[in-house]
Design goal:
Blueprint lengths: L5 H7 L11 H5 L15 H13 L5 H10 L2 H7 L2 E3 L4 E3 L3 H10 L2 H7 L9 E9 L10 E8 L4 E7 L9 H5 L8 E4 L6 H10 L3 E6 L4 H8 L9 E8 L2 E11 L12 E11 L5 E10 L8 H10 L2 H12 L7
C-alpha cells in the first residue's frame, strides 16, 4: 500500500463498516498482513501490539522496542498473542529487526483508521495538522500529519500529507470515510475554503465553524466591518489557569442576507480574548473571527464559544501528548 499518497491509502484501507464495536485486537485482524507468506513466523497482530505496548511503556527507538520485547514476561506475551514454541508452549517475542520491518510495511492510513473512533454522534470534530520535525532528512521534508479528533479527546484518524502539497488537498480525504451527519467540524484559518464548506454541508450533511484570518482578506475585512458594538447576543467566559487569567467575550451575528459571499454562512462570530499574566501582570488582547452555517436557533453564543474552544482539544490532547509523552519530534 502507498505510504505517501493519503488518497490512495484511504481508498485501499479496509472497510470501516462493522468495526465500531470491535476491540483493538479484532480491528487489527482486519488490516492486511503486508508480508509474504513464506518465512512468516510471528503473527502480524502480535508484532503490532508488541510495538504499541513498548511505546506506551516509554521506549523511544526500534532497538528499545526489541529490548522490551525480549524482556517481556510470558503472561504479557500471551496477552499480546506472541508465537508459541515447543511442547512447553513457550512464548517467543519478535526481534527488533522483525518489528522494524513489519511496522515499516504496514499501511499507515489503514492502521490509523482501524485504531480510531467513529465520530457518529459527536458534537464536534477538530481537524488540524502537525509536522514531525525529527523525520526530516537532507532533502526529504518532514512528514506532515493531518489528524481529526472529537471534542472529548478521542482520535478519529490521521493521515500523512503527501510531499509537495499541503493540508488543504487532504481535508476531504481524511473525513470522507465517516458519517458526519449533524457533526460540527472545526478547523483553523488554513481550511476556511469554499470547497471544504461545500463538501461538509452538501456531501457529508455536517456543520462547520471555521476561523477567518487575513489569508482570506476580503472575507476577513467584511467580518471586521460588521456592527459588532450593536450585537446583544454575547457570552462571557472567565477562567484562571496555566499562570494566567483569561476572559473571553463571544458575540454572534446572523449574516443571512447580508451578501457575505461564503457558502451556507448563517452566523458570524467574534471572540475577544483578554489575558493577564499572573506573574508579570502583563495584559494582552486578541480578536478572532469565525464563520458558521449554524443558525442562531442551532447555536447560541455560549455553544459557539465552546465549539471554538474545542479546536484546542487536538492541540492539547494529541499534538502536545505526542511531543511530550511520546517524544515524536525527537524520534
Amino acid at each position: 500500500m502507498c505510504r505517501q499518497s493519503a488518497t490512495v491509502c484511504l481508498v485501499k484501507s479496509p472497510a470501516l463498516e462493522g468495526v465500531a464495536g470491535l476491540s483493538l485486537v479484532e480491528r487489527l485482524r482486519v488490516l492486511p498482513d503486508p508480508r509474504r507468506r513464506r518465512g512468516v513466523r510471528h503473527p502480524f497482530v502480535a508484532v503490532v501490539l508488541v510495538a504499541a505496548s513498548a511505546v506506551v511503556a516509554g521506549v523511544r527507538s526500534y532497538a528499545a522496542i526489541g529490548q522490551w520485547s525480549a524482556s517481556a514476561p510470558q503472561h504479557a506475551l500471551a496477552r499480546l498473542g506472541a508465537r508459541v514454541v515447543g511442547p512447553l508452549r513457550v512464548r517467543v517475542a519478535p526481534s527488533a529487526a522483525t518489528i522494524r520491518r513489519v511496522i515499516g510495511l504496514v499501511c499507515p492510513g489503514g492502521l490509523a483508521e482501524l485504531s480510531g473512533v467513529d465520530p457518529v454522534g459527536a458534537d464536534s470534530v477538530a481537524v488540524d495538522g502537525k509536522a514531525a520535525r525529527g523525520s526530516r532528512h537532507s532533502q526529504t521534508p518532514a512528514a506532515h500529519l493531518l489528524a481529526a479528533m472529537t471534542c472529548d479527546g478521542r482520535t478519529v484518524t490521521q493521515l500523512r500529507v503527501p510531499n509537495k502539497t499541503n493540508e488543504i488537498t487532504c481535508f476531504a480525504a481524511v473525513l470522507e470515510p465517516y458519517d458526519l451527519t449533524e457533526v460540527t467540524v472545526t478547523a483553523d484559518a488554513l481550511h476556511t475554503q469554499r470547497g471544504h464548506v461545500r463538501f461538509l454541508v452538501e456531501e457529508k450533511k455536517a456543520h462547520y465553524l471555521l476561523v477567518v484570518k487575513t489569508n482570506q482578506p476580503g472575507l476577513h475585512s467584511r467580518l471586521r466591518s460588521l456592527p459588532w458594538k450593536e450585537v446583544t447576543a454575547r457570552r462571557y467566559d472567565r477562567e484562571t489557569g496555566h499562570g494566567r487569567k483569561e476572559t473571553r467575550v463571544t458575540r454572534a451575528l446572523t449574516v443571512t442576507g447580508l451578501g457575505l459571499d461564503f457558502p451556507h454562512a448563517a452566523q458570524a462570530v467574534r471572540i475577544l480574548r483578554h489575558r493577564t499574566d499572573l506573574k508579570t501582570g502583563r495584559c494582552s488582547r486578541q480578536t478572532i473571527y469565525a464563520i458558521t452555517d449554524l443558525t442562531s436557533q442551532q447555536a447560541s453564543p455560549q455553544r459557539l464559544g465552546r465549539l471554538a474552544r474545542s479546536q484546542w482539544t487536538i492541540e492539547n490532547r494529541l499534538h502536545f501528548v505526542r511531543d511530550t509523552t511520546f517524544g515524536e519530534d525527537a524520534s
